[in-house]
Amino acid sequence: MKLVYYGDPILRATASEVTTFDKALRETARRMSELMVKHKGVGLAAPQVGLDMRLIVLRFPPHEMVNPTIIERSKKTVLDEEGCLSIPGVVAHVKRAYRVFVSYYDLKGSAHTLTMYARSARVLQHEEDHLDGVLFIDHLPHARRMLLKSKLARISEGVV
Ligand code: CO
């Protein structure tokens, strides 16, 4: 299992729903968690390792979420710094909802809901975006994105 980087088309695709909750799914989640820790990430989505499935892992608190759906976002937002393992060397301030109410399935297929706040809500929103082909840089003002253009081009060309 390896990270894929900005420029890989899977990062722009809508990931498929998980329908089979088997041993292979649990093994995939376990390997993703290991990779996240190894790269000092706080979250990782399956498309970031080249997999077309709606699966994310979070580090604080540790969570594996299958088919996560954000049901409600608070009106209150927070501007804070974000990065992404798929876009190395790029950090930027992104506005995110302070609180989210999310539904998801665990690795055994049981349904859950959870309210997340602040930093963990931010990571959840970032990872859930990945499942719809959205990257954190998409949330930046146009001028800020333009400044990143050459850096992003270099990552696309494999200079990471
Ligand atoms: Co990311």
Question: Care to describe what's here?
Answer:
The chain is an alpha+beta fold. The protein has a single domain (9-154), classed as Peptide deformylase (Peptide Deformylase, Alpha-Beta Complex), CATH 3.90.45.10. Helix content is 28%, strand content 28%. It contains 3 helices and 7 strands, in the order αβββββββαα. It has helices at residues 23-38, 118-130, 142-156; strands at residues 43-45, 55-58, 63-73, 77-82, 92-97, 99-105, 111-117. It has a 5-stranded antiparallel beta sheet. It has a two-stranded antiparallel sheet with strand order 4-5. The two termini are 18 Å apart. Bound molecules: cobalt (II) ion (CO). Cobalt (II) ion (CO) binds at residues 84-86, 126, 130.
Short summary:
With 160 residues, the chain is α+β, with helices and mostly antiparallel strands. It has a single domain, classed as Peptide deformylase (Peptide Deformylase, Alpha-Beta Complex).
Topology:
Elements: H1 23-38, E1 43-45, E2 55-58, E3 63-73, E4 77-82, E5 92-97, E6 99-105, E7 111-117, H2 118-130, H3 142-156
Antiparallel strand pairs: 1-2, 2-3, 3-6, 4-5, 6-7
The chain binds cobalt (II) ion (CO).
Features:
alpha+beta, 160 residues, two-stranded antiparallel ribbon, five-stranded antiparallel β-sheet, binds cobalt (II) ion, Peptide Deformylase, single chain
